[in-house]
Structures are given as structure tokens and as C-alpha cells.
Amino acid sequence: MSILRKNAINTSKVLTEALPFIQKFSGKNIVIKYGGSAMQNSFLRKSFARDVVLMKAVGINPLIVHGGGPQIGKALKNKKINYEFHEGLRVTSLEMIKIIQSILDNEINKDIKNLIDSWGGFGKSFAGKKLKFISAEKQKNKKLGEVGSVKKINKSILLKVLSSREIPIISPIGWSGKETPLNINADDVACFVAASIKAEKIILLTDVHGINDSNGKKISEISLKESKKLQRNKKIINGGMVPKLKAAIEALNNGVNYAHIVDGRVPHAVLLEILTQKGVGTLINK
Hints:
The protein is an alpha/beta fold. The protein has one domain (26-285): Acetylglutamate kinase-like (Carbamate kinase, 3-Layer(aba) Sandwich). Helix content is 44%, strand content 21%. The protein is built from 10 helices and 14 strands. The strands form 4 sheets. Strands 5-8-2-1-11-13-14-12 form an 8-stranded mixed beta sheet, with helices on both faces. A two-stranded antiparallel ribbon has the order 3-4. α4 crosses α5, α7 runs parallel beside α9 (241-253) and α8 (224-231) runs antiparallel to α9.
């Protein structure tokens, strides 16, 4: 058998195995929190955009909420601005919020849209003061500075876009009543959006293999009840995993059916998590 024929058979096998999952999730809304290494590596960025366009082409409705931590960190370092984190959240000064908003709204959001469009998709930016898609308020912990929490989103316009050919790309910048920008953790935004539209799934891309147990072994699947117990274990759940697991649990508590914490460094991680039986990360279900 020729190599070309073997490749064709393997491709056909993959497609047929994916069919039940395509049928199951066709017409369903899936929120993807996009960040970490998946946003920095050129190959992974192009691969992610292509996968999202493919999802839309087969009838699944992807929705992207992006972060930008590494890019923001680099920009602040270049400007010699020191910063710190508190429970996984970047403490944000007035000087920093202007830089953060510019990077998220004007650079990263536009770059994702351009990549999606380059594969024949139709990206739709949800960013900037003019749209003010996210209404927010400052977090009560004053130590955090210009860090906000989501109060509400423009749900009607989002649902309208989801029902069209376009793929929403949401920047995690919120706007206060004074029309000033607030830095919001992208995991929290993804959770709020997923709960608001009762998404079928929320997928949180990260730079680890998923959630590990006390022995350092990846947990492939865990129940909501078990994940709440795990959340209290500071030896296992710490650093950037704190807001991710918190967001996943809140999404499930508010009507989302499945939450996934997935290694974004794996090529085609989102497709593998959605269209295969085992996936590549940690699945949290009800």
C-alpha cells in the first residue's frame, strides 16, 4: 500500500471517529479561554486559528476570550514598570492599565482576528471603549488597584454574532460607570460569558498538562463535587491554577455542562479535547 493511500485512510478514520462528537456539539456554543504559550508560539497560534475556523465550518459555535499575560509582562518590563501578583491576579496601577488596555484591545485582539480571517473565517472583535461590551466594577480588594469584576455583558449582541458566520473574540477589559478601563482576569470573563449564554462547554487553555493529583499525575476527569474539595488544597491548586479552577467551578455552578482545563502547548489541543473520547486535559463535569 502506498504512503499516500495510508495517509488518506488514516485521515478518513480520524474524520469518521470525530463524527459523533461533531453531531453532539453541532449548534452548541463553546467558550474558549485562549492564552499562555498557545498565543506566543507562531505555529500554535496559526494552528489554533485554523482549528477554530474548522469548528465553525462543521456547525459548532466557538467563542474566544483571550488573555495576554506574557505580552503584558514583556511590555511592562520594557518600560521598567514593576508589578506583583496577588492570588493569581496582576496588581494594576493607573499607569499600567493604559498599557494593558492597549495591548489587549489594539494588538492581541486584532492579531487573533487577522489569523482567523486568514483561514477563511470571519472574526468579530469585542474590544474597545466604543463597544464597551463588558460592564465592570472595581474589585473590593483595594490592593489590586485597577482590577475589575464583570457586572454584565451585552448578551444580545453576542448571541446575534454567534448565530451568524462570525466568531466572537472578546478582550478581557471591562468598563466602569466612569468609562475607565479595568483589568479583568480572562478566566473570570470566560466563566461569566459561558454562564450568561449557558454554553455547552468552557475550555481554559493553560501551560500545564491539566490538574494534577497529590502524586503529580494528571487527572483526566473529575466531578464538580471532587473539584470543589481539590480547590481547598493549596499544595495542589496554587498560582495561576487558582483563578482557572475557580472559573471552571463557577461556570458549572451557573449552567455550563462541561469545563476543561487543557494544555495549550499541545497542537490542536482544542479539537482533541472536543472531538476525541479521552481528550488531552482535565474534564470537570456535573
